[in-house]
Write a structure and sequence with these properties.
alpha/beta; 14 strands
Length: 446
């Protein structure tokens, strides 16, 4: 097998031409398969085999004969060649996902850290078609992010979570030339107003379809200025941390006049109180009612309002609104919702498309009784629900799981998070598994 470094100059030119062809039509298998033939002719038969194998797997139905054998071949090729194909990026800390023969997603782990000098030249040859590049609590992010846009022509998603010097990160991203970036996640990276103000000037904003800036300390004015940029009118998914200034009226105005393509919204309170950011969420029952009356809600598939001031009245108004009929995800975690709100959800034909419902709460907030849980389990409208998260009052927790075990109730339920005691309900998890439901007592997500 011949490595790239052993190819002649003319062969390297040919290889670059093949890769450009693949980059220009990334969803077409034909250029990949032509390149595989070229690799066969130039001493790299196993790399060629890997490309063909993954292309065949991508096109195969999951139950197709021969799929298992191809999966085994794919795993064997990766086991023997992953280190070579990743070069200096190979590490147990990192996660690499190959698709149709090329590295598709790459996640740099917390403990990964080799010298930048050995990584920078390796970006292009080892990441020809990488679409996702992510950093998790890694100090290399600040040095490597400036290189990504120029070195990765197929880059579509960048994610930085729990990284350092967030303002420097977003400022370096803002300096990228125009590119096709469609998803940007910069979460819990200490980004402030200065960084977001610079991000608002990025030349590639118009291509963004997803923006996640949660758990940073961005002031209201800087955040609003960014969201008012006309280049973001195509944004479809937004996740932000917003203080008490971000009222229901302000949200409706933003959705109706500026973010006119938005279909998924996640809004939560600031991670820290004080320092001028407010100590409470801003969306109360009146604010939610304003949103419900807005035609903007009709296009929504996901609405997540965490740690706000929503109570039973707001949930009742939402459940009664035909504007909510497109929702598949409703997340009102850590609000002030009780049995009346739960009953409204259970009895709403407008929420029949929900597949994910989160009404869990911190202890002391809207806790549900056993009667409320039974009403939800008996709902004739929530037949599509696959994920459910609830918090019940301590006195009701022992019997709260039983209603969901009855045949015919919530028939598509697969993931149930409920604060029941497994110590006093021996075998409960196995009973749910027999029904095809995974029962957990604590949600470890975000």
């Amino acid at each position: 097998m011949r490595r790239r470094s052993t190819l002649s100059e003319s062969e390297q030119d040919q290889q670059r031409a093949f890769l450009r062809s693949i980059q220009e039509t990334p969803e077409d298998d034909a250029p990949r398969l032509v390149y595989a033939d070229w690799l066969d002719d130039h001493g790299d038969a196993e790399r060629a085999d890997f490309i063909r194998t993954q292309c065949r797997l991508e096109a195969m139905p999951r139950d197709a004969p021969g799929r298992s054998a191809l999966r085994m071949r794919e795993a064997d090729l990766l086991r023997r060649h992953r280190s070579e194909w990743l070069g200096p990026w190979d590490s147990r800390s990192n996660e690499a996902v190959f698709r149709r023969g090329f590295l598709d997603a790459f996640h740099v782990g917390t403990n990964f850290g080799v010298g930048l000098s050995s990584l920078a030249p390796a970006l292009s040859p080892y990441h020809d078609l990488t679409r996702t590049f992510a950093f998790q609590a890694n100090r290399l992010a600040e040095s490597l992010v400036p290189l990504l846009a120029g070195a990765l022509p197929c880059l579509k998603r960048v994610a930085c979570e729990n990284c350092f010097r967030g303002n420097a990160l977003v400022e370096s991203m803002a300096a990228w030339p125009s590119c096709g970036l469609s998803e940007l996640v910069v979460r819990r990276c200490e980004v402030g107003s200065a960084g977001v103000s610079r991000l608002a000037q990025a030349p590639w904003l118009a291509s963004l379809r997803l923006l996640d800036l949660r758990d940073n300390l961005v002031g209201h004015d800087a955040l609003t200025s960014l969201l008012l940029r006309p280049q973001l009118r195509g944004l479809e998914s937004l996740a932000i941390t917003a203080g008490r200034e971000f009222t229901g009226r302000a949200l409706v105005a933003l959705l109706s006049n500026h973010l006119v393509a938005l279909r998924r919204l996640r809004m939560q309170r600031p991670p820290l109180v004080g320092v001028g950011f407010g100590d409470q969420g801003a969306i109360d029952d009146d604010g939610l009612s304003l949103l419900i009356r807005s035609p903007a809600l009709v296009r929504f598939s996901s609405l997540e309002l965490l740690s706000q001031h929503v109570g039973d009245a707001g949930v009742q108004a939402l459940a009664a609104s035909p504007h909510a009929r497109g929702l598949t995800t409703l997340n009102l975690r850590d609000n002030r919702i009780g049995d009346a709100g739960l009953a409204a959800v259970a009895g709403s034909p407008h929420l029949a498309n929900l597949t994910c419902l989160d009404l869990s709460a911190a202890i002391g907030q809207g806790l549900f009784t056993l009667d409320g849980v039974r009403r939800l389990a008996d709902s004739p409208f929530l037949s599509n629900l696959a994920t459910l998260r609830l918090t019940v009052a301590p006195g009701s927790s022992d019997g709260a799981a039983e209603p969901f075990l009855h045949a015919g109730r919530l028939p598509k339920l697969r993931d149930l998070v409920l604060n029941v005691s497994l110590m006093t309900n021996v075998g409960l998890v196995e009973r749910f598994r027999a029904r095809g439901v995974e029962l957990t007592t604590h949600y470890a997500g975000d």
